[in-house]
Amino acid sequence: MALIHRAQLRPSKLELVEPWLRTQSWFSGTPAALSAVGAYRFDDPDGEVGIETLLVRSGDGPVLQLPLTYRDAPLEGGDAWLIGTMEHSVLGRRWTYDATGDPAYLAALATTILRGGTQADEFVDVDGTLVFRESTARFSGSGTADAHTPSLPPVTAPSTRDESGSTVIEAGSLRLVVLRVPGDPAAETIVVAARTTAGGVPEHLSGTWPDQPQPRILALAVAL
């Protein structure tokens, strides 16, 4: 379950990520301001880290996938993935990270993909009452509930690199691939390569959002 507080954010999420986003090698879009297309969340079993993936578009550009984590203190060893901080009117200062370098996100992504999980149910705290909120994007993993999930190494160990419109993370015995530009021909080369290596379609995360009614692959999990 993802608990959402009705709160003011300064800066807003889009205002915070936009300068960072435009410096990324996989960015595609126009000078127009970012717009939100959809979002989905994963649970942190420890209840300490907010894990949210934004789907955004710059002008008439393609949909871009931005996994983020929100923490109440700096992530040890995570400076390379820090995007910036926000002031949350309920929770206080929140350190916001590119989640591909955050162990909480990597564990949640791997578990969701390999065990056939889905996005977290979202509940908004309205004066002490939890009110269900429908997610703006629907996602599920291709695995099965009894699948083994490899343990992931400490935060300082994951190796990340940008490749063909994707971010590739090698953590322990698992390679996770986050398609930053879902459906883009460059990103699809990653899917094809993974299919060849795995001898078939590897375990993956796929889903839909308002202007994408047909399921689209968003991330892969490949055993090393």
Distance between the termini: 31 Å
* Fraction of helical residues: 10-25%
Tell me the strand order in the biggest sheet. Answer: 2-6-7-5-4-3
- Structure classification: alpha+beta
Sum up the overall morphology in one term: globular
Number of helices: 3
Q: Return the domain count.
A: 1
Mean pLDDT: 87
Rg from Cα: 17 Å
Unreliable spans are none
Q: How many DSSP E strands? A: 15
Beta-strand content estimate: 35-45%
> What does the largest sheet look like?
6 strands, antiparallel
Order of helices and strands: EEHEEEEEHEEEEEEHEE
Please provide a written account of the structure.
This protein is α+β, with helices and mostly antiparallel strands. It has one domain (2-223). It is 16% helix and 43% strand. The protein has 3 helices and 15 strands. The strands form 3 sheets. A 6-stranded antiparallel β-sheet has the order 2-6-7-5-4-3. A 6-stranded antiparallel β-sheet has the order 10-14-15-13-12-11, with helices on both faces. A hairpin with a 2-residue loop joins strand 11 (159-163) and strand 12 (166-171). The radius of gyration is 17 Å and the shape is globular. It starts with a strand and ends with a strand. The mean pLDDT is 87.
